[in-house]
């Protein structure tokens, strides 16, 4: 839970700073820091991707996961929900607080980095991805709070419950996963993180949410493919 706690702290700090110094924050500086975080995110993804033991598992899990993700249009559904939530709260008088809360929750808790990082923390206690995400959320919360105010700060509770829940669930499921299955799951998730990092930098517009099913396909097919490799080798 260390990564989740750090993430909540960065959201709180970023929100308070954004609300306090909203007229003094330069967009140029914020954009520069975001690129730096994007580069670090790519590095974290590459490092995690190297944990894979069977390239065939990665290829099949990414292909099958992408097929599932694009058929279900996960990325599109997330965007539609975001648009619906924004329209819904714009009807309220307290529009800034409500819209800020919804927007912050979606940005902080919806995406491959949240899922991959929480699973990594729950399965093997690796908080690297969540801490990297926390640095990204620090900048995001600062920028959002300068516009939406206290609504962004209130999203901290949702971050704690949502990410914490995934970490706890993953820690329970992790007992049923072999080390090989865990490594392949992290490998597939880390490849997705590379795509996310490229998006943050601005060099691509990959719909990373559509690839998230690959994380769950990887451990499911690992035993079969490992057995197949043993037979043919």
Can you walk through the features of this model?
- It is a single chain.
- The protein has helices spanning 2-20, 27-49, 55-72, 74-89, 95-109, 112-124, 128-148, 150-173, 179-201, 214-232.
- It has 233 residues and is mainly alpha-helical.
- The protein has one domain (2-232).
What portion of residues is helical? over 70%
Q: Determine the strand fraction and express it as a percent band.
A: under 5%
* SSE order: HHHHHHHHHH
Alpha-carbon distance between the two ends:
41 Å
The number of distinct β-strands equals: 0
Q: Any idea what the radius of gyration is?
A: 18 Å
Sheet having the most strands: none
Can you tag this structure with a few keywords?
233 residues; mainly alpha; 10 helices
What's this entry about, in short?
With 233 residues, this protein is mostly helical.
Furnish the topology, listing elements before pairings.
Layout lengths: L1 H19 L6 H23 L5 H18 L1 H16 L5 H15 L2 H13 L3 H21 L1 H24 L5 H23 L12 H19 L1
Helix pairs in contact: 1-7, 1-8, 2-7, 2-9, 3-10, 4-5, 5-7, 5-8, 6-7, 6-8, 6-9, 7-8, 9-10
């Amino acid at each position: 839970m260390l990564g989740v706690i750090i993430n909540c702290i960065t959201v709180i700090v970023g929100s308070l700073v954004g609300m306090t110094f909203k007229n003094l924050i330069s967009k140029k500086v914020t954009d520069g820091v975001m690129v730096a975080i994007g580069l670090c995110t790519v590095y974290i993804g590459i490092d995690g991707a190297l944990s894979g033991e069977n390239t065939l598992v990665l290829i099949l899990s990414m292909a099958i996961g992408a097929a599932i993700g694009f058929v279900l249009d996960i990325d599109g559904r997330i965007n539609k929900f975001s648009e619906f939530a924004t329209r819904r709260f714009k009807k309220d008088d307290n529009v800034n607080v409500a819209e800020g809360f919804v927007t912050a929750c979606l940005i902080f808790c919806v995406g491959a980095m949240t899922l991959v990082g929480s699973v990594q923390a729950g399965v093997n206690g690796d908080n690297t991805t969540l801490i990297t995400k926390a640095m990204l959320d620090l900048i995001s919360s600062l920028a959002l709070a300068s516009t939406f105010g206290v609504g962004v700060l209130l999203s901290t509770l949702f971050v704690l419950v949502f990410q914490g829940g995934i970490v706890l669930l993953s820690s329970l499921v992790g007992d049923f996963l072999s080390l090989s299955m865990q490594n392949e799951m992290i490998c597939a998730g880390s490849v997705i993180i590379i795509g996310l990092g490229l998006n943050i930098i601005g060099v691509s517009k990959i719909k990373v949410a559509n690839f998230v099913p690959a994380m769950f396909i990887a451990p499911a097919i690992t035993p079969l493919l490992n057995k197949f490799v043993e037979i043919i080798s």
